[in-house]
Design goal:
The protein is mostly helical. The protein contains ten helices and two strands. The protein has a two-stranded antiparallel sheet with strand order 1-2. A hairpin with a 3-residue loop joins strand 1 and strand 2.
Length: about 240
């Protein structure tokens, strides 16, 4: 365990903290807020190929839902046969159903390191300001609300909803929502409100990271959706 902690501090925590401090020295008034935004964008750009691949994989899986449901219905009494048929379908369509978990696994240790930096690593710095007006040592209601708003937008740009609308069946889908879709919709509101509370409790440094990360993810989703719309229009 001690080796893992040392490895984590050496490879992630300390380098990211040093980069953040270095970025702040290059900015007017050593603006830590802008430095946090730049560092967040840099990390998101590095992980973007993996996250874009995960989004495309989710689209492909959503498109396969009719076939998946057909297999589940056909082999509902034989779980083993159902699993074999599903694996065969994935193989035929060249889809890895687990590829969407890779970005999460890659981001998790980085996310933990960043949160530790924001919560502990910057404690000794008194000049923590964003644009010279927002004290990052204090909670900020505006940043907390923005974090919740952008989290809500990110959740609402859901791929299943997009695909249904792209197939001109949004009205029908509203009438035939299943329980999982209803729960997902409710969780969108709950998690958005929870985001406001978390950012308010943990502070403005977390808020800036959260907002920047959400905006970047929204851009990624819209990019994939735009390319998907072109593909549908050309069919």
């Amino acid at each position: 365990m001690e080796f893992l902690i040392t490895f984590f501090n050496t490879v992630l925590y300390q380098p990211l903290l040093n980069i953040l401090i270095f970025l702040s020295t290059l900015l007017p008034n050593q603006d830590f807020g802008v430095a946090i935004i730049i560092l967040t964008l840099f990390i998101k750009l590095l992980l973007s190929p993996f996250s874009l691949k995960a989004i495309r994989s989710q689209i492909a899986l959503q498109e396969l839902q009719p076939k998946i449901k057909e297999i589940q219905k056909k082999y509902k009494e034989d779980i083993n046969r159902q699993s074999q048929a599903m694996l065969e379908l994935y193989r035929k369509e060249k889809i890895n159903p687990f590829s969407s978990f890779l970005p999460l696994l890659l981001q998790l240790p980085i996310l933990i390191a960043l949160y530790l930096i924001f919560l502990k690593g910057l404690k000794g710095y008194s000049n923590l300001f964003f644009l010279g007006i927002i004290d990052l040592n204090q909670s900020n209601l505006v940043l907390s609300l923005l974090a919740g708003i952008f989290q809500f937008i990110q959740s609402k740009i859901s791929l299943p909803s997009f695909l249904k609308k792209s197939e001109n069946s949004s009205e029908k889908s509203q009438k035939n929502k299943n329980s999982s879709e209803i729960i997902q919709e409710q969780m969108t509101y709950i998690f958005s409100l929870l985001s406001v509370f978390i950012v308010w409790q943990l502070g403005s440094t977390i808020g800036l990271y959260w907002i920047t990360s959400s905006l970047f993810s929204i851009g990624e989703q819209l990019l994939v959706i735009k390319s998907r719309v072109k593909k549908i229009d050309n069919v």
